[in-house]
Every structure is written in C-alpha cells, then in structure tokens.
Amino acid sequence: MDTENVGTRPKLPVVDAEVPFAFEELFFSRTDWRGVIQAGNTVFQRVSIYDWNELFQKPHNVIRHPDMPKAVFWLLWDMIKRGEPVGAYVKNRAKDGRYYWVFAIVTPIEGGYLSVRLKPSSPIFTAIVQEYASLLAAVPDSKAGAKAGVEVLSRRLSALGFDDYASFMAAALSQEIAARDQRLGRRPDAAIACFDELLTAAKSLLKQADLIFEAYARSEYVPINLRVQAAHLGQSGTVIDTISSNYNLISTEIRNNMDRFIASAASVLKTINDGLFLLCTATIQREAEEQFRREIALSQDAGGGDRDAEMRLLEAQRSHYREKTIDGLAAINDRAGSFRRDCAEMKRLAAGLEVTRIMGKMESARLAVVKDGLNELIDDLEAFQTTITENLKEIDTNNQNIQVKARKLATLVDGLAIEAA
Predict the structure, then answer these.
(1) What secondary structure does DSSP assign to 317-344, as a single string?
(2) Residue 145: which H helix or E strand, with range?
(3) I need a labelling partner for 324 at 20 to 30 A (CA). Which of 20, 107, 184, 285 fits?
(4) What is the CATH number of domain 27-162?
(5) What separation in angstroms does the CA of 118 have from each of 80, 223, 293, 316, 374?
(6) In whole angstroms, what is the distance from residue 94 CA to residue 386 CA?
C-alpha cells in the first residue's frame, strides 16, 4: 500500500533479486488514514528487512518499489477512500533493495486501513507483471500521469477480458487463492468453486441478453418494410398493415425494455463479482487471524503495539467481511429474482410476437401472388421471435441455477463461520 501525503521515502538501492518467503505466510499491517504504519505481523517485518522501530509510525510507502506504476496506487486510494475494499498486485522493495511481490487486500477500518497480503503465483500474476512494465514505459511516473495510467490500465484489462477493475480484482484474488491452495496441497475451496459456477452462469445471462438485442437490431426495420408491402397491395394489404402496426408496438416495447433488461443482467454479474471478492477477502482475513494468534502464542513481537488489541481488530474485521459476504449472497438472490421478473415481461412480449408472426404467415399464404417478398419479412419476424424465445428459456434456467447456488453458498459460508469459531 502506498502513502498519499506523508513523508519522503528514503533513497535505497534497487537489487534485481527476490526476498524469499513461503506461500503459507501472510503479511498484515495496519495504517492510519494517511497510510502511516501503526502495527503489523512478523512476516511483514522480516520480509521487509526493517526493524520495527524503522517501520512503526513510518509511511507505508517506505517499501514502495520504483517498478510500481502510480496508477495502481491511484486506483487503490480512490476505492478505499470511498469505503470499498480493494485488491492489487504490488511489487515492494525491502531495505536491502531486493524486491518481493504480493497480492494486497486493503480494507477500511475505523481510523485507517488494514492490509493483508499473500504470495501470488497464478497466470494472471504473470500477465500483470508484463502489464505493469508496459504501463511504466507508456505513462510518466508522476501524479499527473497516474490518472492517465488508470485509463491505460483499464483498456488493457478490458483487452484481457475484464469488464472493469472490480471484476479483475475478484478474478485475480480467487485465482491466487486457488493457486496457493494447490501449492500447499490443500483441497480447492468449495465456496470459491461455487462462485466460479455462478460467474459462468451470470456471464451466460449477459451473453444471451446481448443476443436478444442483436436479433432486435437485425429486425428493427421489419415493421417499416411490412408497411411498404401493405401500401403496394392497396386494399388487399389492410391485414398486413394491421400486422405491421401490431409488430411495431411490440417491437417498440421490447426496445424500451431492452436497456433495463441488459442492465439487469449486468447487475447480476457485478453483484456476483463483488460477492466473490468479499468471500475471498473474508477467507484470507480468517487465515491471517489464525496466523497472528499463533504468533501471540509464541510471544513474538507484533510491531510494538498491543497484540491483544490487534488480535481483536483482526477478529472483528474477519467477522465483518463474513457478514458482508452473506449480505452479498442475499443481494445476488435478489438481483436474480429481479432479472427473472424482467424476463417474464420479455416472455409476454415474445408471446405477442408469436401471435403476430402466425397472423403474418396466414396472410402471406392467402396473398400467394406476392408471397415471396412477404414471406421474407415473415421469416425475419420468425427468426427474431425464435431468438427471444430460445434465449429467454436458457436465461430462465441459468437464473434458477444462480438462485440455487447462492443459497448453497450461504450454507457454505455459515459452515466456515462455525469452523472459525
């Protein structure tokens, strides 16, 4: 975690060598709202190679590595100042100039921030090391360049398949936990695996909603073309004109509902991503709490502060994020339920399209003299109606699965709470 407005970092050498530490080791440190270190654990102190008197009441950017783009810290501060937890890959510099990489989870607490950090090893980490180097080369390492760097980073994350930084940090943290568990010979986390299934279902929802929108766009001019056909038919085209009007009304309703429909699908996906990050945060905080408890039992130093007070703070933070995870699961269920209601409205409109299509087909058969041109338009209408019907059916199945899995996750999270107690 960098520091915004505090002090000047000492000029230290940069050594192209890594400070070793084990995958099972977790760092934690606590700062005030300015980023000044108030406490930490022995892993933090040992790996940074500073004595506690060199860390305590010092700005956290004492360990900032020059290879770190300022844009990442700009993002970090922007989110935690708004009271949101944030995760980021950070390259730190030890006192002797060597480096060490961590994935940092920073959460707001009363009077400041708590950072828990783990050793990264996932494929996302490998990609991000390259992205940071490219970002440093492309954007000036200055305060002015930091915000521009955020835009460059956002575009790169989008190219890597992430909708925004929040979805990136949720994916990164869950993959880091999975990679860490594998290296430590642990079974995959059941709750995180369940969240992965939720994300797959939610991405499918959004894809299916987009397919409906694309089908609408392809058939947007069918009502106008039907009206042209009716005009050419004169008196014989009265029914076609009525069909065109009915189709136009339904099509307009679908278009008016489309933005809300797609936004509703996107909201389900965002809520799941947020829930995944909260769950992963609570998981790592729980383990950091357990590690710190072992440190206290061994009477090891914890940053010169009140170790019992720090222990209580970790316990409270872990409990808080567990509750936030449960609230997030309830929100997922609510969003999925809301989306199902939007689907029901789209189904009603699709049923209206089906009636209109059948009327059109019957009239096309009656007007055999012009059936070729009319049939083509009726086929377009049928394709649109079929796309809506088929995708709504898949959406409904996915939505139900999301609600079932959200309830299953709530049970798993409650089980984790019992284990922690």
Answers:
(1) HHHHHHHHHHHHHHHHHHHHHHHHHHHH
(2) helix 143-159
(3) 184
(4) 3.30.450.20
(5) 19, 59, 17, 20, 65
(6) 62
- How is residue 19 annotated by DSSP? P
**pLDDT tens sequence across 164-208:** 999 999 999 999 999 999 999 999 998 888 888 888 888 888 888
What's residue 394's pLDDT?
87
Q: Is 185 helix (H, G, I), strand (E, B) or coil?
A: coil
Which helix (H) or strand (E) segment holds residue 394: the answer is helix 371-420
Q: Would the pLDDT of 112 be above 90? A: yes
Q: Are 114 and 106 in contact (CB under 8 A)?
A: yes
Cα separation of 76 and 70, whole Å? Answer: 10
Answer yes or no: are the C-beta atoms of 306 and 44 closer than 8 Å. no
Cross-strand bridge partners of residue 109? 112
Locate the domains of the chain by residue range: 27-162, 190-420
Q: How many CB atoms lie within 10 A of CB 357?
A: 21
Angle at 102 between CA 11 and CA 85, to 5 degrees: 105
The mean of the pLDDT values for the chain is 85
Instruction: Report the b/e string of 298-329 with b at 16+ CB within 10 A.
Output: eeeebbebebeebbebbbebbbebbebbbebb
Phi, psi of 121 (to 5 degrees): -160, 5
Residue 114 corresponds to which tokens in the numbers above? Answer: 């708590």
Tokens (6 digits) for 363? 């009239």
**Are residues 28 and 292 in contact, defined by beta-carbon separation less than 8 angstroms?**
yes
Q: Measured in whole angstroms, how far is the alpha carbon of residue 154 from the centre of its chain?
A: 13
CA distances from 414 to 104, 285, 287, 396 (A): 25, 16, 16, 28
Q: Which residue(s) pair with 37 in the sheet?
A: 31
Residue 233 has pLDDT above 80, yes or no: no
Q: Which residues contact 60 (CB under 8 A, 6 or more apart)?
A: 1, 2, 3, 29, 31, 35, 36, 37, 115
Rounded Cα gap, residues 133 and 141, in angstroms: 12
Place of tokens 């099509």: 251
Q: What is the pTM of this model?
A: 0.83
Q: Provide the pLDDT for residue 421.
A: 42
pLDDT in tens, 349-387: 888 888 887 887 787 777 765 555 777 888 888 888 888
Residues 6+ apart with CB under 8 A from 163: 269, 270
Task: Provide mean pLDDT across the span 280-293.
Answer: 91
